[in-house]
Amino acid sequence: MLSRRSFLAMSSVLGGSVIAAPSWAALVDQDANTKFYASAYSLNEQEHYFGLFNDTGNLSWATKLGARAHAPVVHPTQSIIGIVARRPGFFMEFFDVSTHQKVLHITPSKEHHFYGHALFSKDGKRLITQENHYPSGQGKVFIRQWPSGDIIQSFSSNGVGPHESVLLGDNTLVIANGGLMTHPDEDRKILNLDTMQPNVTYLNLDNGKVLNQSKNSDDLHQLSIRHLDVNQQGTIALGFQYQGEIWDQVPLVALSQLDQSTLEYLPIPEEVRIRFKQYCGSVCFDASGEILAISTPKGGLVAYWHVNSKTFLGIDNCRDVCGLSTTNNAHEFLLTSGTGAILKSNPVQNSTTLIKKHTSLHWDNHLRLIAT
């Protein structure tokens, strides 16, 4: 685990420098097999935190935040973690875990807000954010230099509401343009329900060129594309949040490819699809890329598929579950819930284990593995 002794030793050597921040592996004390996970959480409606816990579910590091946050951002090599404010968000905070120090505070450009997600380039030299230019409602992608945070490029996301994105290879950004036009003055009210057009856009990060774009059919234009993940084979998994009537029978999960113009919807038994209540939370592939997990906090379950065969595998029931992360083991996932539960699940072996129950805290929407 990350011991206090390790923190203090790193702090005295490095003096809190972002550039000199040690690798994640350098922070592992004694047990090189220990894994860490990052998540925001709250104690109540006024007290919000961001922290790390280990694979036994014990908190190893935490810091208080001024407002509720959404998704973690993990630097690929340095011991830097960040957290993005919940949409409409106006802050990102970055911390050096080795020193317990905040190293960078980033705010969006004028007349923009964050969407709760961000990511680093694979070499760790660029920070990529999705933002809303709320006077026009158009989505933007900003490329910031790391560790300064200075904007060096910006592109259109080629859609409205770019909520989450992932990297396909080193230089292709895949963006879930959710299609929801909002304005921070009206909180989270959707302003374009009748005209929304969500899409998945594949963007060249060098020049902003669109490499591919896919969307739902016109009769499914209210099927907001919100969260996504990518596996080693380059398959993109998508989770939807339908903005139409609760009783409408619509697909909720799909696959996308760079060389395909259409989306491929995955089967869900109707009795399970109904329980989703039209809302997908987190989207996550396992370490092998063979198994896909989708959570629904509204439905209180996680559903699983075998991707290549497009086979539905089953569900785990867990009240207010949303956070999903792969572990280093094939077919295995870690789950977190708003009730404070941390579970480990292997849907291929049909096994689920409660790792820890933190009765005083509420895990937020998203979870990230730190690959030490």
Summary?
The chain has helices spanning about 5-15, 270-275, and strands spanning about 35-40, 50-55, 60-65, 70-75, 80-85, 90-95, 100-105, 110-120, 125-135, 140-145, 150-155, 160-170, 170-175, 200-205, 210-215, 225-230, 235-240, 255, 265, 285, 290-295, 300-305, 310-315, 320-325, 335, 340-345, 350-355, 360-370. It is mostly beta strands.
Protein model, in words:
β20 and β21 form a beta hairpin. The radius of gyration is 19 Å and the shape is globular. It is 5% helix and 47% strand. The protein is mainly β and 372 residues long. The strands form seven sheets. It has a four-stranded antiparallel β-sheet with strand order 3-2-1-28, with no helix packed on it. Strands 4-5-6-7 form a four-stranded antiparallel β-sheet, with no helix packed on it. A four-stranded antiparallel β-sheet has the order 8-9-10-11, with no helix packed on it. It has two helices and 28 strands.
Major sheet attributes:
4 strands, antiparallel
- Strand line-up in the sheet with most strands: 3-2-1-28
- Helix/strand-derived class? mainly beta
Oligomer: single chain
Beta-strand residue fraction = over 45%
The topology string of helices and strands comes to: HEEEEEEEEEEEEEEEEEEEHEEEEEEEEE
Q: In one word, what is the shape?
A: globular
Rg (C-alpha, Å): 19 Å
